[in-house]
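User: Second chain of the day. Same drill as before.
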Amino acid sequence: MSVLSKQEIKRRLELTIDKPESIVITPLLSEEFDHDSVDVRLGSYFRLPAISSVRCIEPYRATPETIISQYPELVHKPYGGSESELIVQPHHSVLASTLEYIKMPGDVSGEVLTKSSWARVFISIASAPWIHPFYRGCLTLEVTNLGNVPVALPVGEPIAHLVFMKLEGQEEIKSDIIEGSYAGAVIPEAPSFGG
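Assistant: Same format as last time:
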């Protein structure tokens, strides 16, 4: 795999959406971004691991008593204004969505990396950071406060880098498809386990 350069990302962003190798990021923060990545911002929706009546999560043995479609709890924080942040307590994690909706081409994978400024206050974007070819939707991020003091996460501010990697040795992509368990997501979705 090779990382797409700023020039290649820009070229693909300028292609029409019907082109199999086009990338879509909307709304795009800026036309200016790093040499090898695009910043993504924190969206308005979060899933919190709130205290629940769920006795135990049993991912591959779902019964009415263990169904986890409502866990973690969905919370909305408005964009802009005094209520537009989520406080994450020390040693806690939340699921968050990106503000941007992403369309991945069929010949590119993506990886989400924590911005270094956030890492320096012990915030980590750690789990499921891989984006498969053909994905469509807002990205779900696991945001963890590894520090010892609460941290405010401001909605709409840059939180992570999205790096694009060209798949090597793949056949030419002639058509565009949508696939994946969470394709089309606009909020962080509850987990989907199974075949």
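The first strand starts at residue 2 and ends at 3.

User: Great, on to the next one.
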